[in-house]
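Posted in: Protein Modeling Q&A

I'm a second-year student putting together a small comparison for a lab meeting, and my supervisor asked me to include a predicted structure for glutathione transferase. I've never done this before, so apologies if this is the wrong subforum. The sequence is pasted below exactly as I got it from our records. If anyone can share the structure token output, I'd also love a short note on what stands out.
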Amino acid sequence: MAIKLIGLPHSSNTLGIVLTLNELGLPFELEPVTDLKTIKTEDFLANKHPFGKVPVLCDGDFVIHETRAICRYLVFKYQKDANVVLIPDDLNKGSIVEQYISYEISYYHPALHKILYQEVFNKKNGIPVDEAVVKQGLEDIEKVLDIYEKVLEGKDYLSGEYSLADLLHTVYAHVIYASTAHSDIFEKRPNVKRWIANLRN
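Accepted answer (user: helix_wrangler)
Welcome! Here is the predicted structure, written out as tokens:
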């Protein structure tokens, strides 16, 4: 039975899973959510996600939700067959990758989300941009990337080798370049610039 991904087609969370599926060479069916009422039904809440959220991944009879949990599941189940290593089996190396996955969800993602929600989502939907929120997001990401600049010294990727941690940083980096005027946050830091260039290639 094919892997099915239920999600909002242009959501960064959906796209992160799509990148993981592609990296692992896995065929899948995307079931786009076009009406949010469909994920609030009793059946969906009982069988897919109790909070009525997406994305949700169905792999045969197995159902899992939450983006990073889905990505980890796919890696642990399929990376050996795909002959790629997104989370190393070695405990120490794998734990370092998990450390940087935590950086992404705890520091990088929240800072960029403030910017992108205002400058992409709000603009698209005719909602006024709250410049104070954008300013705070820029201040936050500057602090985050100052630390990343040190972490990336002498390395092409966060843990040295390309991993799920790097992959999960990719979507928001692409959106910053494609949809905002803030790519300088990456470009002015040589180590971060090199890393982002690697992710975007």
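A couple of things worth pointing out for your meeting: Helices lie at 12-23, 42-47, 67-82, 91-124, 131-151, 164-179, 184-187, 190-200. The chain is about 60% helix and 10% strand.
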